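Re: Re: token formats

Sure, here are both.
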Amino acid sequence: MTTLRILLVGGLMSYRAMFNWLSPWILIPSMIVSPICQILLFAYIGRSAGVGNDEFYVMGNALNYAAIPCLFAMSATIEGEREGRTLSVVLTTPAARIPLFLGRALPVIVNGWAVAMVGVVFGLLVLDVHIPGSSWPALLLVITVASASCTGLGLAMGAVALRVREGAVLGNVLFCLLLVFSGVSVAVDDLPGWMAAVSPWFPLTHAIEAAREVADGAALADVIGLVVREIGVGALYAAAGLLLLRWLEDQSRRHATLERV
């Protein structure tokens, strides 16, 4: 019960503490307007070039923008503790590290899922996108998996934030890498050979492909392999993040740099 309380209640309290002081209006440009603008940009470029269709760009870019809260919010829950001089208090608690930090990931996953859904719903209402009613349960699951996978990368990014001065710069770089390598607006098959070989190791690649197939009417059983691979990629980054967090925590204690900003 203690572990469950740390995982659920502790994660929610930490998330609220990091962002509760912000005005809710800041969510509008960053998590509603920006994904819509990106979707419109690539959808109309695709129309002009005669490449792909609206559904292709909506699914890719909607899931891509789930990375914004998953990367930045996950990193901020760790980097913010350091800047607020409370990280040492968190790390000296007897609580196990896995529920302590994975609990902080749960609200982030929900946030990323909501941002992706904004893009999908916008595509349905404004662009030429039609999703069969029977496909929605599978699509919602795929979007959840995509958000969780990106949050795993965000956890690794948050661990690096223990050492670097500004984690937002790294977040922008990772977001752009996902945009280019994950098949967001250019199909993985159309990427140069070396980029296509690297692409499966990035979060979102398998989830975007699965979302496009589901939106075309495929059943969950038809894309379960893609979903499992996406879960594996996310778990790999989450495990790397936890290990890196533990190692950097130890190094920070040795060199008295735990809360240096």
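Second one below.
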Amino acid sequence: MAVSTLKEIVDRAFAEKYGVPAINIVNDLTMEAVLAGAVEARSPVIVQTSVKTVKSIGSDVLFAMWTAMTAGIDVPVALHLDHCPDRDVITECLERGWNSVLFDASTLPVEENQRQTIEVVKHARTFGAHVEGEIESITGVEDGVGSDTEAARQSLAVSLRFLEETGVDVFAPAIGNAHGVYKREPVLDFQRVSDLVAAHPVPIALHGGSGMTDAQFTDLIARGCAKVNISTALKITFMKSNLAFLTDAEARDKWDPPSLFAKVRADIVDLTRGLAEQFGSAGKA
């Protein structure tokens, strides 16, 4: 229990066919609220930081927050660096204490991506950390990383060679998913997940989870998506909660920051608890 490794968390989820919320936080309030929501749900959770968040707050401060907020926590939690193409930032976070990273070299040719991912995996192992890999860009820009142009999908053979050669612990394929807000219900390649898992049993990371339907989540988790990324939904909840409170405060001319923080925290706790229930991880801690 308490601070765990990414592999410990997702391997169990993969075996038991439930999904673990992997939620991108943006500050101290959202980190604490996500952790509190996981405790309420008795669910494992993966707290994710984008490169933008690491650079804006600082890795030292972020990890100090993490250490303080997870002291004595009694559900499995892991700290993950999301979508990072910068190996210097990966090294910085591993040295601070992040216990997993997504090395995003998806803009590189597959052969170069594979070569560098092998190096990142080897480096991460010296810290006891784990690595998520991907060979295709997930459509959409998130915190300055990515592209709105859909990337070509690699063949099953290319994906399997990448998995076998790199030894990544989690794999993030493109299946029609996208970062950001979906303008319509996404058309997803469910079979691609099944084909990958059947040929090389590895936990799959489902990116672009914000806005998918319950039926899509249920189907993909049953096929092997053990890590379900949520970023946009948290940002929307955070911003709308602030906006609603401040609009009301302005109308009443009542200005009480602690009440604002309490309202936003409660909404993020509710979001996290709801995701755990939706993905089947509630009660698994």
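The radius of gyration is 18 Å. Residues 99 and 129 are 5 Å apart (CA to CA).
- S.
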